[in-house]
Amino acid sequence: MNLWWVVWKELLHLRRDRRALFILVAFPAMVLVLYGYALNFDVHHVALGVADQDRTRQSREFAASFTHGEYFDRVVTASSAREVDAALERGDIQVGLVIPEGFARALARGEPVTVQALVDGTNSNTAVTALGYLQGFTLDHVMDLTMERLRALGAAAGPLGASGGLPFDLRLVVLYNPTLQTARFLVPGLIGVILTVMAVVSTALSLVREKERGTMDMLRVSPVRAFEVVIGKTVPYLVLALVASALVVTVGWALFGVEVRGSVPLLFAMLLLFLFGALAMGVFVSSLTDSAQVAFTIATTLTMLPSFLLSGFVFPLDSMPVAIRAVSYTIPARYVIAILRAVILKGEGVDAFRFEFICLVIFAVLMVTLASLMVRRRMT
Fold first, then answer.
1. Strand partners, 118
2. Is 172 helix (H, G, I), strand (E, B) or coil?
């Protein structure tokens, strides 16, 4: 009975504060839309400059092979490598291609030919992606030339087979994200990060509000126990967080095409477990201070940057130093993001993320215990 009294009291606070209610439900979806479109690692329309010093049909075809599609836009046609360098320095282009004189003659003789590619490395992500594009387009062009030469020599009688007359057949298959869209990779991670920050911050202000309004003394003299205060203050926000989660998942499907391949009940069961621990963490933070400003600062510091940097949301954990990877095991967003990607993108069950599930259980129990101990200390 005491537990439901605390729940009802917290619901009344939320009912009076309509702005907070709107933020808790709608803000995660709004942030997902913003970051889903803003955070995009796909690189298109790279500005390309070409210096064709050979001026033959073969060199023109080679240069034109890079501008098929939306990856490169040829914006500068130079007459020398020096002009390409100048265009890179001015920032007019991001990639420069220098085709040497004698390009066609070397191809006809089967001799090796060196083509220079200059890439602006000030943006490392764009530079690495552009290098991959350059290598891919060059390989495609070389294979086309090889097949033409095989046809001319009569090496392939009739239509070419699956390998195009070449001695091997390489077929690439990309699983779970065939088009390699950034949104499909980012949206599940964004859901985990957004819910982590919102859950902890929302309850981090709950006990502080009691202290600032002078109603903490009522809790002290009431028969309510510490764990009932923790659970009671968590349940209303848990319901709102689940509603926000459903809204975020729907927005991810409607705007970015990220559908849930796995079990939807399993997905929300995992979110329920995670949110329970995250909300209890907010109550724990709230019990550490008497100021709403300090509670907000602590909550955002503990959640926002760690969730972005150390959860595997953007940066792969395997590439980090051992010490940093060890710290990442203390970040709850790491586990929920791994679960979200497994269920949403791969359609996996619990067996695929058993370790992450156990870690979330430990996180939830630990946070409820710590929050109860701190609230009991405050109440006494």
1. 96
2. coil
Instruction: Identify whether the C-beta of residue 278 lies closer than 8 Å to the C-beta of residue 199.
Output: yes
Q: Which two tokens stand for residue 365?
A: 């129990």
Banded pLDDT at 77 (limits 50, 70, 90): very high
Count other Cβ atoms within 10 Å, centred on residue 322.
Answer: 6
Q: In 3-state terms, what secondary structure has residue 307? A: helix
Q: Which residue has the higher pLDDT, 217 or 358?
A: 358
- Considering the chain, what is the average pLDDT of its residues? 81
What burial class does residue 167 get, using C-beta atoms within 10 Å of its C-beta: 0-12 exposed, 13-18 middle, 19+ buried?
exposed
For residue 239, is pLDDT > 50?
yes
% the chain with pLDDT above 90? 24
What whole-number distance in Å separates Cα of residue 231 and Cα of residue 6? 9
Instruction: Tell me the pTM.
Output: 0.73
Q: Which two tokens stand for residue 250?
A: 């729907």
Is the distance from CB of 183 to CB of 265 less than 8 angstroms? no
3-state secondary structure 179-238: CCCHHHHHHHHHHHHHHHHHHHHHHHCHHHHHHHHCCHHHHHHCCCCHHHHHHHHHHHHH
pLDDT at 99: 92
Torsion over CA: 126, 131, 135, 137 (sign) = positive
Instruction: Please give the Cα distance from 115 to 95 (Å, whole number).
Output: 13
Domain 46-152 falls in which CATH fold? abc type-2 transporter like fold (3.40.1710)
Overall residue count recorded for the chain in this entry:
380
Question: According to the model, what pLDDT value does residue 159 have?
Answer: 45
Cα(370)–Cα(358) distance, integer angstroms: 18
Where along the chain do its domains lie? 2-40+181-379, 46-152
pLDDT tens by residue, 144-193: 877 777 777 765 444 444 444 444 444 555 667 776 677 777 888 888 98
Tell me if 177 sits within 8 A of 219, measured CB to CB: no
Q: Which two tokens stand for residue 45?
A: 């329309």
Please spell the DSSP secondary structure of 43-100, one letter per residue: ---EEEEEEESS-SHHHHHHHHGGGSSSSEEEEEEESSHHHHHHHHHHTS-SEEEEEP
Percentage of the chain lying above the pLDDT 70 cut: 79
